[in-house]
Amino acid sequence: MPILKSLRDGLSRTAQQWGSRISEILEPVAPPGLPAPASPETLEELEELLLEADVGVTATERIIQSLESRRRAGELSGSLREALKQQILGVLRSVVSPAPDGTRPRVILIVGVNGTGKTTTVGKLANLLRAGGHRPLVCAADTFRAAAVDQLVVWAERANVDLVKAVAGADPASVVYDAVQAGRARDRDVVLVDTAGRLHTRVNLMGELEKIRRVVSKEVEGAPHEVLLVLDATVGQNGLMQARQFVESAGVTGIVLTKLDGTAKGGIAVAIAAELRVPIQYVGVGEGLDDLLPFSADEYVEGLFASQW
Q1: For the chain, give me the number of helices (H) and strands (E)?
Q2: What's the CA gap between 50 and 64, in Å, rounded?
Q3: What is the separation, in whole angstroms, between the first and last Cα of the chain?
Q4: Strands 162-164 and 190-194, how do they pair?
Q5: Which of these, 257, 182, 177, 241, lies nearest to 211 by C-alpha position?
Q6: Directed axis angle between helix 118-131 and helix 146-159, to 10°?
Q7: Of 10, 64, 90, 303, which sits with the fewest C-beta atoms within 10 Å of its C-beta?
Q8: Whole-model pTM?
């Protein structure tokens, strides 16, 4: 399935609600077939819409202030819908991911709280990387929860990738060390590490994560090369609060936004870009093995505006 169609399907709940509200705001003030005029009242209603869609205060203020400045300058004579679309796109494009430096194996830590889809994301990401020509190896470093290891075994088999695991209660850093060594020996170019679900307030788990970072940094130059935080799109602004703490304490370099298909508030991606200044790397739009997609600002906005627009 093409990425754009998958994103449109995943964003359908948001787009449907979004499109309906846009029509309510703009159609009463515009003759059929003509662009809606921008007015202070219209922009105020658009501001409410953005906040309802979990775009967040920071991004919403930035977007509305820009539209208001253009209105005052007489630069909103065209479609207000298109102007809003371009403003949202601008926020998302303002945060970009750095290009990989070519180090092998590339070590990627997957972090987040339990319940966000972290372990399933590891399996889906392994499948996506393998389909893209990479040779990933998965490391089950969540040794505190036997169910997490069992779950990852299933996903690794479905993705047809190697898995390194240990007995329950083993030292996670030791498991990661073994995985890096196995990655080298088997000529794997990416090692995906599923870490224990943790909250930023759990000092022992955050300390364990720091230990993992120290171990891999000694084994591979520049490792970990990425720290991806898995966020559940359905929890909205609460997830954003958690994310801030992870960014500060865990060195997060990218976001994986899961369960995008399960919410009508898909604007949370815009809030992440504006408030966290961390790029969204992937989005989850379903439960299937192929339902993890590389994030594209352009395709995301097309999906967001696709329904009635």
Answers
A1: 12, 8
A2: 9
A3: 22
A4: unpaired
A5: 177
A6: 20
A7: 90
A8: 0.91
